[in-house]
Design goal:
4-stranded antiparallel beta sheet; two-stranded antiparallel sheet; 8 strands; 25% strand
Amino acid sequence: MAAAAMDVTHNLRKITTGVLVSGGVAVASLGLATGTAHAGAYRWCPGDPPPFASLPDGRGGRRNGPVNPAWDTTVCHDWIPSSDHVREGIPCYSLVCPPGTMREDQMPIVPNVGQG
């Protein structure tokens, strides 16, 4: 009888371990899925240096340089560079975008200060 009880205990431990490992993998994969939503976006917050974008270099080419987006400078912004401006938001590069993201071509272009 003691051997049967040990087999049950051993089997319960194996099942419990399997459930915990499976749950941990599921939770980890959810974390990865939400983390990929920010892939490709930069985050600017008050006190950070200005964002950068591709600016004309005066010789017909382009160079990376700072831009001054006309956005609320008292809060943080997610952005990506877009020519000599920035696009605000978190880009999505899949067919179905998760909440809080949008396709890059639908992200609003933020004008630079003085450009209206």
